[in-house]
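Worked example (supplementary).
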Amino acid sequence: MKYTQGKYIIAEKSAIARNIYSFTISCPEIAQVAVPGQFVHIRIGSFTLRRPISICGIDPVKGTLRIVFEIRGEGTSAIADLNKGDVIDMLAPLGHGFTVNPDFKKVILIGGGIGTPPMLPLAMAYGEKAVAISGFRNASAVILQEDFAAAGAETILCTDDGSAGIHGFVTQPLEELVRNGGVDAVFACGPTPMLKRITEICRENSVYCEISLEERMACGIGACLGCACKTKRNDEEYFAHVCKDGPVFKAEEVLW
Amino acid sequence: MADLSVKICGVDFKNPIIPASGVFGYGHEYEELYPLSKLGGIATKGTTLNRRTGNPAPRIAETPSGMLNSVGLQNPGIDYFIEKELPYLLTKDVTILANIAGSTIEECIQVAEKLENTDVHMIELNISCPNVKQGGAAFGTSCDMAAEVTRQVRKATSKPLIVKLSPNVTSITDIAKAVEDAGADAVSLINTLLGMRIDINTGRPILRNNVGGMSGPAVFPIAVRMVWQVANAVKIPVIGMGGVSSGADAIELMMAGASAVQVGAAIFTDPFAPVKIIDEMNDFLDKKNIASVRDIIGTVQPW
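After joint prediction of all chains, the assembly is encoded as:
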């Protein structure tokens, strides 16, 4: 793992849904080493703590990263106030990412709400081998569906209220797909209840599963031990850390 | 180029800046960003006799100009530290302060004894962790207990012994004098201030431990005041810390009486903070034509 800290130019900014923003950031040295599932740690003005934001796009040729984030509080609101041409202070790329295995023939990528963006680099990696299931509250919260399609993935859209795509949770199409067989792995990021249910479905069907978690974080690189996540490795309970051991964990290792 | 070196209890530091215990782990993560040899010292993660798992998450909460933490001394235990971490750190041309803690006096003694045959430069005895149920702050908030644990650990080690003090007391000078009398070679202060945040939407504290230690720029004036009071109350050196985030802050804490300065939460905001602080201190001294950083220690002229 190699990360750097620096100030980088925001090359593009757009609002892609209510309170959800997309930044493309020019940062060649980060774009060349980042992998799907990693995150960037952003410094904002007078805040003591940086904000971890997952990476939504990696373009090593153009030397850019894309991040897509939702305004959740004062910190993310301040990031959203930045504009094209402004500099953004990032410590990146951080964390342990998703498995990209060329032997996998079919994988399912599941994003719930603002957990959807980190699945996009994985869709780019798996291309036509990927089925991207995305779940949102309603039609106005839907993001990134064209991007998943452009990456070559089959897209399945779900909304809680049925205002777009399937009326229901992402776990419905997931259960059908895994029952039909041939799924080598499931990768997911989103709300905890969703991740718990996905973990159960994968366990019941003996399908390999990795999930991306979030936790309140300080250093971002594994030194302060702030972002603890209870896990089980080699039959031993252990507080792993989301920033360095994760954010992506094998689902079977996470003790909820 | 000013002379930034300091000497504390006979131990040389090439400059007075030391990442504080708990923020810097055992150094590996920051070594990806800069050589550890740039630092004056490193206070290693608080280490106990046996491995500790720490507190459940959330362990971190932001506060205005600061943060709370309740990590709860998660660490791999002193044997692991001595075998796997310390030998590597000792090759890095930086002074190592082994921060140790225990739930009982006996445990503190055992940890100190285990370090006796290592080449670690100093021991920093933490009697002020606010995040553990036994030991920790319980030792640091009573003069008698603070003196007793200091006296016992003093007997167990020939290493220079720094005692790290809690600010969560009525009179930090009384505690400082008690540990000085009990044989401490130096004191370091301040550890974090006990704080709490509540999520008003859920009615639950943000920290799973309910309360945690507050640090960051918000606590800096308290650190300056306590360092100044303690430096005037004891004869042993004082290592200052608490909200330091710039070279100016470090100079201020040294003028208040600190012989060296630890840097904590600022490293989360900017991982290069310790290195920048060293450069900024040098620039200040050069601008003021002060030859050595030692010349500013305790030079505040109070009204």
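Two points are worth noting when inspecting this output. Chain B touches chain A at residues 22-25, 28-30, 32-33, 45, 53-63, 65-67, 69, 71, 74, 206, 216-217, 265, 267-272 (CB under 8 Å). Residues 54 and 74 of chain B are 4 Å apart (CA to CA).
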